[in-house]
Automatic annotation (TrEMBL):
Source species of the chain: Brachybacterium epidermidis
Lineage top rank: taxon: Bacteria
Lineage of the organism: Bacteria, Bacillati, Actinomycetota, Actinomycetes, Micrococcales
Parts of the chain that traverse the membrane: none
Protein name: phosphoserine transaminase
Enzyme Commission (EC) number: 2.6.1.52
Positions of the Aminotransferase class V domain: 52-343
Task of the protein: Catalyzes the reversible conversion of 3-phosphohydroxypyruvate to phosphoserine and of 3-hydroxy-2-oxo-4-phosphonooxybutanoate to phosphohydroxythreonine.
Length: 385
């Protein structure tokens, strides 16, 4: 780094940001994401009747039912589609899918850390053949290719590590017996989707649903449910109970999970889903995240020091904006001084190793906070020049 760059980084770290510029809420993390105060109030209200009680009894089962029916409303689920949940996060669902949804071989689109991890899980599964992998460099978007040699297609709707967003639609030429498995962890609830274009649309609560981790949730098509039941009935390989999709389906139909869930996570999520439905559902959430992410991309177009990491505008995420910072400016200095002023979690994904900021615009993040964040960033860049 040049002396000029070192001087500018030192100026940034020594800045004091006027309180008048700061957003009302400085949490912009890509997960865990900000939790609204109304959710915390709901959690306090539940402390006397739900927290610390059995997950097999009505108080907790009613919360699970609120989550399942709320998601069915949010996604406008057609007849036969079911909301299923289980213990563990989305990473656990990769194993669930490898054991209970992929019969022989799958195709994976890889464009970042999380899409790569699922492909690796499947490659290491001893009962499956090595998957087809279609790879793109981080920041670019690969596309599925119809293949008669696979029984499942898998990709991430939103690659959280890079801010690449992919469409959810069945590959052209795909057979009716081939499943589509969509990792929607950072997209679900913030991006419009047609659920009939996927057979397993799975995610975790700590992104758009403003809750904590520890659960996976999946919208399953009738074809996915039939596949899971058939694989389980064949008994060709051992499936641990905690990773059994059929066990999760059976328990979900009773509004419960196999093992004790994090009840506070369910309460926070139920409150968030109902709030989103009250605002106008998925169409409202999609419009809101398009607006807030759009503010950031418009700002990047105005600042010569800032460039969207994803070159293709159509592939830029509307819930996780990744913005490269010019090399003469140390992005860690920016994130450090912002953190000291209560604006947190805009660091890039650690393994990506970019000089950038990564800003989440989930539905709980209002436009006025994004505008305030932009004003703060302008102040830091201008004052340090």
């Amino acid at each position: 780094m040049s002396d000029h760059s070192n001087d500018r980084s030192a100026r940034i770290r020594g800045l004091t940001i006027p309180r008048s510029l700061l957003p009302a809420d400085g949490r912009f993390g890509s997960g865990p994401s900000r939790v609204r105060s109304a959710q915390v109030d709901a959690l306090v209200a539940a402390s006397g009747s739900v927290l610390g009680t059995s997950h097999r009894q009505a108080p907790v089962k009613n919360v699970v039912k609120r989550v399942r029916t709320g998601l069915a409303e949010l996604f406008s689920l057609p007849e036969g589609y079911e909301v299923v949940l289980g213990n563990g996060g989305s990473t656990a669902f990769w194993d669930v899918a490898a054991l209970g949804l992929i019969e022989r071989r799958s195709q994976h689109l890889v464009c970042g850390e999380f899409s790569q991890k699922f492909a690796t899980e499947v490659r290491d599964a001893p009962h499956l053949e090595d998957p087809e992998v279609i790879r793109a460099e981080p920041g670019a978007l690969p596309s599925p290719v119809s293949s008669p040699d696979v029984d499942a297609y898998a990709w991430a709707q939103n690659e959280t590590s890079t801010g690449v967003m992919a469409p959810v639609r069945r590959p052209e030429g795909a057979g009716t017996e081939q499943l589509v498995l969509i990792d929607a962890t950072s997209a679900a609830g913030g991006v419009m989707v047609d659920p009939t274009q996927a057979d397993a649309y799975y995610f975790a609560p700590q992104k758009a649903f403003a809750s904590d981790g520890g659960l996976w949730l999946a919208v399953l098509s009738p074809a996915a449910i039939e596949r899971a039941e058939r694989i389980a009935a064949q008994g060709a390989h051992w499936i641990p109970s905690i990773l059994s999709l059929t066990t999760a389906i059976e328990n979900s139909r009773k509004d419960q999970t196999l093992n004790t869930p994090a009840v506070s996570t369910l309460v926070l999520m139920a409150e968030q889903i109902e709030w989103m439905n009250e605002q106008g559902g998925l169409a409202w959430a999609d419009s809101r995240t398009r607006e807030t992410s759009g503010l950031l991309y418009e700002w990047a177009a105005r600042r010569e020091e800032v460039t969207p990491f994803v070159d293709d505008p159509s592939a830029r995420s509307q819930v996780v904006a990744t913005l490269d910072i010019s090399e003469e400016i140390d992005a860690t200095a920016i994130t450090s001084v912002l953190r000291a002023h209560g604006v947190v979690d805009i660091e890039p994904y650690r393994k990506l190793g970019r000089n950038q900021v990564r800003i989440a615009t989930f539905p709980a993040v209002p436009p006025e906070d994004v505008r305030a964040l932009i004003a703060v960033l302008d102040h830091v860049l201008d004052a340090s020049a």
